[in-house]
Amino acid sequence: MNSINKEYGMELDMKIYLYQGSYDKVKESGVGQALDHQKKALELNNIPFTLEDDGSWDIIQLNTVFPDSLRAARRARREGKKIIYYGHSTMEDFKNSFKGSNTIAPLFKKWICRCYNQGDLILTPTPYSKEILETYPLTKPILPISNGIDLDFFDRNKGDRESFRKKYNLKKEDKVVVSVGLYIDRKGFREFLELAQSLPQYQFIWFGYTAPALLPENIKEAIKNKPDNVQLPGYISSLELRDALTGSDLFLFLSHEETEGIALLEALAMKIPAIVRDIEIYKDRFKTGEAVYKGNKTIDFRKEIQLLLEGEKEDLTENAYAVVEKVGLKNVGRRLEEIYIDLLNLSPGGEVGGYNESIDNN
Known about the structure:
Radius of gyration: 21 Å
Helix content: 25-40%
Low-confidence stretches: 6-10, 354-358
Strand order of the largest sheet: 4-3-5-6-7-8
Shape: globular
Distance between the termini: 35 Å
Strand content: 15-25%
Number of helices: 14
Number of strands: 14
C-alpha cells in the first residue's frame, strides 16, 4: 500500500479509490479513456489504488456525473474521506452533442455543478476548461492537469499499416484522411462528409459511433447520403486505432469545442500530420504552423488537406510529438501524486495547488 515520494523523502501511506461506477456507459468515450489513463498513470508511479470500495482508501477520484457518482461522493464525505472530482464536462461541450442537448444544456450545467462541488478539489484537463469552470458557481479549487497520453502504446513503430489498409480495401496509392468522434455537429461530422464530397480523389474514414436514437434528422440524412469515398466503420479498439493512425496520411480534427481532445493527442503521438479547427483551447498549446495546421471554414480545410497530402506543406510531426511527450502518463502520474500529497496535508505547501500547476499547459 505504501509508495515512496522522492521529493519529500518519505513513505506515503495512502491509497486512491478510482471510482468506476457506470464505466460501461463511458468506456468508449473520452471520459472512459481518461479513467483508463489515470489507472495506468498510477501504476507507472507505484501509487497504491483500488477499483473497489474496500474501505482501505484515503481519496476517492470520480470522473463521471451520473447519479451513482454523486452518491459515492456524498458517502465519502460522510466517512471523512477526501474527494477529487474530475471536471471533464462543461455546458459548452455538451451543446450540439445529441438531439435536444441545447435545450437541456442549462439543466446539465446545474447538475454538473452539483456534482463537482462535492469534491475537495476539481481537476480539469486544460487551463482553457479551468477558465470555463471558473465562470460557474463552483466553490472548490480547480486545477488543470492533462488526461495524458499513453506513449508506450501509441508508438508509430507498433502500428500495422498494411493490415489497416487491407482491412479497409485501400490501394497502396490511396491517400487517407481519418477522424475520430461521435456523429455530432460539435465534432464537425457533417463538415467531414462535405469535405470528402469536395475531395473525391482522397479516401476519408470516420471512426466512432452514436446510437441512431440520439441523432438529429440532419445527421441521419448526412449518413444516408454520404459520399462514396467515405467509410464509417463505427467504434474501434485502441489497437485498431493505432493501426489506422499508422496507415493513414492525415488526421483531421474538426471539433468546435473540447476540454482537451484525447483523440488529437493520440494522433500526434503517432506522428501523423494533423489539421485542427482554430479554436481557443489550441491557441497556445498547438500553434499553427509549429505543431499542427489550422482552419476555420470548409474552404480553409480543403486547401490545407490538399497542400498536406500533396507534400506542399512542412512536416510538423516531430514538433507535435515534442508537445504531447510532456503529457505522457508517467508525468501525469507524478503530478497526481503531488496533488494527493497536498490534499492529504502531507506536504510542506499546505494548500492544494501550492506547487507548479502545470506539466506543460503552454
